[in-house]
Amino acid sequence: MLADVELDLSAGEYVAIMGESGTGKSTLLNLVAGLDRPDAGTIAVGGADLAALDDDALTVLRRERMGFVFQAFHVLPYLTVAQNVALPLALVGTPAGERDARVQAMLAAVGLGERGPSMPRELSGGELQRVAIARALVHSPMLVLADEPTGNLDPDTASAVLALLREQVKGRGAAGILVTHSLAAAGTADRILVLSRGGLRERA
Amino acid sequence: MSVAVGDAGAVLRGSLAQNLARTLLAALAIALGVALGLAVQLVNRAAVDELTQGVRTIAGDADLTVRGPRDGFSEQVFARLARDPAVAVASPIVEADVRVAGSPEPLRVLGLDLFRAAAIQPGLFPEGGGQYDALRPDTIFLSNAARARLALDPGATLVLQTGLADVPLRVAGSVPGAGGQRLAVMDIAGAQAALGRFGSISRVDLRVTPGTDVAAFRERLAAELPPGVAVDTPQASLRATESVSRSYRVNLNVLALVALFTGGLLVFTTQALSVVRRRAQFALLRVLGVTRGRLAALVALEGALIGAGGAAAGLVAGYAVASAAVRFAGGDLGSGFFRGVTPTIAPDPATFAAFFVLGLAAAIAGSILPAREAARASPARALKAGDEETALARLRPPWRGLAVIALGSLLVGLPPVDGLPLAGYAAIAALLIGTLLALPALSTAILARLPSPRDAPSGLALAQLKGAPGQVTVSLAAIVASVSLMVAMAIMVTSFRTSLDAWLVRVLPADLYVRLPASDAGSLSREEQARIAATAGVAWAEFLREDHLLLDAARPRVAVLARPLPESEAAAKLALVGPALARPPGAPPSLWANEAMVDLYGFAPGSVVTLPLAGRAERFFVAGVWRDYGRPQGGVQIDRATYAALTGDDGVTSAALWLAPGADARAVREAVRRALPGGERLEVAQPGEIRALSLAAFDRTFAVTYALEFASMAIGLVGLSSAFGALVLARRREFGVLRHLGMTRGQVARMLAAEGVVTAAIGTGAGLALGAAISLVLIHVVNRQSFHWGMDLAMPWPQLAAFALGVVALATLTAVASGRQAMGADVVRAVKEDW
C-alpha cells in the first residue's frame, strides 16, 4: 500500500529509492511504468497522464519513452547480444540500417563493442547487465527504471555497472530511478529517497 | 551429505502435483490407447471364439477331420474310411449355410448319422420330438440360439430355401448341447435330399482305434484320399476358420496400438519439457547428493506412475467400450467377418495384464530419454538460467534417425511371417521413429532457411524457434506421429477405394446381374438358364458357376469362377495386373489366378498347376493374374465350357445380362423374376447398385479404422497443446520482459501465433512427407501381404490440404490460447520471480 508519495523528476536527473522490503518500491516502479494503476493520485510521464491511457497506449508509452534494467538481467537467451539491444528499436520501427548503427554505438558505449554476435550464455553476469543497460537506453528513452540492477553481481562488477548506468542515463539526458537496498549503489544517484509506510522522503 | 530416496520422492510427488494437469493429460492419453487396444482385442477375440466354438462343437471329440469342396465330395469316401481298421468311429456330415424363409441370415444346417455322431459329437445330439423324429427326412432340430433367433418352437414349420426351391421341415425339438451356436441338425439322408446333395457329404470326423499313431495314420490317409479332399486335425480347421479374419484383426489391433504409441509420445513430451523446466531443481538435488542413477530412476518412476494410472483407467474403459460395442453393434467391427455373431466379452486376466504392461511400457519408454537427460546434465551448468536448450541439444545429431530410416527401408523388402506383414509393421515403426529422431536436425535446417520477417513479433518468434529447436521437436513428436499415420491411412484408403471403384466398373460390364440368394445350396439348371436368357429385353446372358475347393486343409477354401472365358477375351474381360499369356501348344486349359493365389499357392503366370475338380486332379496353365478385391483367400477363373466338361456340372449360381437397345432395366428385372418359379427370390441388381453396396461396405469397414486414427490424432493435438502450454508457462518471465519493453498483448499473441504456425507447419510438413512414405508401405507391403491385393496409388490432395490447414490452424489457436492463459494480469510481475 503506497501513500503520500510525491516525486518530480527532470531530464538528466538520477534518483535512488531505498526502503525496507515490502514498503512498495517495486510497486512504485510498476505504477510509474504504467504496469499497475493507482487507486488515487496522478502519474504523468512526459506530460502524459497515465490514468487517461488504455493498456495499448501505456504499452506504446513504455516502448517509446522508457527503459528498464532488472536484477536478473532478463536478456532473451535465444537472441544475440546485438539482437537483444536492438529489440526496443525494432518495436518502434526504426529502419534496419539506422538500427544497426545505433546498436553498435550503444554496445561500444557500454564496452561490448565486439560482443554483438555473441549469445547471452557466453557472457558473464556483469556483461549481461551491460547488455540490459544498452537495451534500456538504445532508443533514447526519457525515463530509465532500474530495479536492483546489481543484486546479482559481485561488488567490483556492481560498482562498474552502477557507474556505467549513471553515466549513460545522465549522458543521454534521461531521467533515472534506481531502486536498491544498497547504500553504496544509492550513493551513485544525485539524490536518495527513502520509501516507508509514511511515504517517500529525502534521506537525511 | 547424501539425500535419502524418501526426500527425493517428496520432490517427485511435489513435481507431479505441480504439473498435475499435464500429468493427468498424459495419463489420459495412455488410458485412451490402452482402452482402444483392449476393446478391439476383446471384441475380436470374443467374435473369433464364438466362430471357432462352432467348429469345435461340430468336430466334437474327433481325432481327425476329412474335408473337401464346399459342395461336398462322394460318400464313397466315407464308406472307405468306415472300413479302415485304424478307424474306430467315422461320422459323416452334410454341412451347409442355407437361407431360411423370413430370416435375413443363413442358418447352418448339419445332416448327421445320429448313431455315429453320438460317439463323436454328443453335443449335437437332438432332443425332443417323437420316437423316430430324428431319423425322419422332414424334421429338423434347432439349437436354442437358432430357435430364439428364428422364433420357431417345436411343431412349427421351418422353410429352407435351396436355390429357388422351398423345403418345408417340421421343427421337432432342440439341440441342447450346441451352446450359443445358431445351428440346426437333421438326419443326413434328409439333409442330402433337402439340399440336393444326393450321394455327397461335406466332411467325415474320425475317431481312431486305441493305439493308432494319429500322425502316421493322417499321413497315410492324405495319400489315399481323392484330390480336393484333405485330412487334418480339428485344430487345423480351427486355424483355417480363424485365418479368414486374421489379417483384418491384426491390422485393427496394430491401429489401436498406434493410439498407445502416440500416448507414449505424449508422455515423452510431458516428461521432456518437465525435465527441462526442473533442470535447476534436479541440479540442486545432484549438488545435495542425489546420484545420477537415482535421479534417472525418479524420472522413470514418474513415467511409470503416469503409465500405471493411465493403464489401469484404460483397462476399465476398454472393458466398458468392448461390452458396449458388443451390445450395440454385435461382434462385427465393420469388416463383415463377424456379421450376425453375438459374442460375450470374457474378462480374460492374461489379456488385461498384457495391455496393462503395454500401457506401462509405453509410458516408461516415453520417459527414458528425459530420464537419461536428467541424469546426464552437469549440475553447475544446469543451475544457470537459460541453459534449457542445452538439455535438448543431444537430440540434434541426425545420424541415429537416418540410420533407423535406412533400416526401415530395408525391412520393406522382407516377406511376411506366418502370413502377417510383421516386417512391414516394423518398417513403419522404423520410419516413424527415425523421422522423430531426425526431426531436431530437420527443424534446425528448415528454420535456418526461413527469411527473417520484418515485424518485431514475427522476428522474435522465428528467433525463439531458431534458438530452441529441441523444444520445437519435443512439442512436435506426438503431432508428427499422429499426422503421418492419419495421412498414411488417408492415402491408403483413397488408393484402395479408387482402385476398388475402378475394379468394380471393370468387373461389372453388364446391365443387370442375377444371382441366387446367398447360400451354400442350390444352383440354376440348364432350363432355368434358358428361361432367363429368353426373357424379353435380354439381348445376351452370360452365366457363372462359383465353386469352392479345398487346396490346403489349414487354409480357407479357394473360389473357382467358371464363366464363358475364351483365351482371346481374357484381357478384355478380366482386370489383369500383368500380361495375358498365350497358352503354349500342348499345354493344359488356361486358368487365371487372382493375386492371392500367387501369394498363397504360388500360382505364378506361365506355370502349370492342378485343381481338384470332381475328385480328379486337373492341370491348368496359369495364363494371367487378375486383381480381385472379393476373395483374399484365393480365387481362380476358368472357362465354363472347360469346367462343365471336366465336372459334368452345368448348373450356375449367377448371371450377367446385357439388355436389348431400348429395354428398361426395371422391367427386365421384374420379367426375369417372373420367368422362373420361385424367381421372386432371385437377387437382381444393376451395376450401380452393386457398386454402391460394395463401396458402402468398404466405408463401413474403414469406419472403425478412421475412429481409431482420429483418437490418435486427438492425442497428438492434445500433446501439442500440452507442450505449448508447458513452454508458454515456462516463458512467462520473457513475456513480462517483452511487456516492459513495450510489446502489446496483441503483439505477444501475434508472436505466439507465428511460433504456432511455424511449429505446426514443420510438424505437419514432416507428418505429410512421412505419411506419404508410410502409405507406400501400407499399400505395397502391409495390404499386399495381409490381404493379397494390389492397388494403384491415388492421392487425396484436397483432403490432405484441408487436413494440413486444419492441423496448423488448430495448433495456432492452441498456441495463442496457451499464451492468453499465461498472459494474465500478473505477467509483468513474473520478471521478479526467481529461477
Care to describe what's here?
- The complex is a heterodimer of chains A (about 200) and B (about 850).
- Chain A has a single domain, classed as 3-Layer(aba) Sandwich (Rossmann fold), CATH 3.40.50.300.
- Chain A contains 7 helices and 8 strands, in the order βαββαβαααβαβαββ.
- In chain A, helix 3 packs parallel to helix 5.
- The mean pLDDT of chain A is about 90.
- Chain A is an alpha/beta fold and about 200 residues long.
- Chain B is of the alpha+beta class and about 850 residues long.
- Chain B has 4 domains: about 180 residues, no CATH class; about 170 residues, no CATH class; about 260 residues, no CATH class; about 170 residues, no CATH class.
- Chain B is built from 26 helices and 20 strands.
- In chain B, strands 16-17-15-18-14-13-19-12-20 form a 9-stranded mixed beta sheet.
- In chain B, strand 16 and strand 17 form a beta hairpin.
- In chain B, helix 2 packs antiparallel against helix 11.
- The longest helix of chain B is centred in the N-terminal third of the chain and has 44 residues.
- Chain B is elongated, with a radius of gyration of 33 Å.
- Chains A and B meet through helix 1, helix 2, strand 4 and helix 3 of A and helix 16, helix 24 and helix 25 of B.
